[in-house]
Amino acid sequence: MDLRDQTCCFTGHRILPANATTAILRKLNSILLPLIEQEIRVFWLGGALGFDTLAAEHLLKLKQQHSQLVICLALPFEEYRNRWSEAQKKRAANIDTQADQIVYCSHTPSKGAFLQRNRYMVDQSRYCIAYCNRSAGGTAYTLRYAQQKGLVIQNLFPL
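RESULT FIELD:
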């Protein structure tokens, strides 16, 4: 079996609508649990603020009941989080320490490193879970790329 058949990636906006966290998590859970029942085990996240962080923290909670889950982070480059606030860095460090794998997709900071990270996650996956509410930007680009690659895509928007 191709490992991609057991793999799902995530893409979403850094800024989520105010007061939408509960609805996003509810819908995310309604998609994740059936995937886990279908033997989807590997989950790739981009380590960004917003949707990636929310999804990663939720997966870590699910892993407490489903120990077979493998949580992987694809980060654009090593200094990626240098400009984040201390609270944001602490939250990311908590995710990093519990992740099963961290991959840096580029050695140098650049806009291209973000696109490389997004393509890397899609190329590992058969499924994609997104929170995308606009047709431009990195999330929309990643969804178009996932569609071109034939991934099964589930967009949480609209809630």
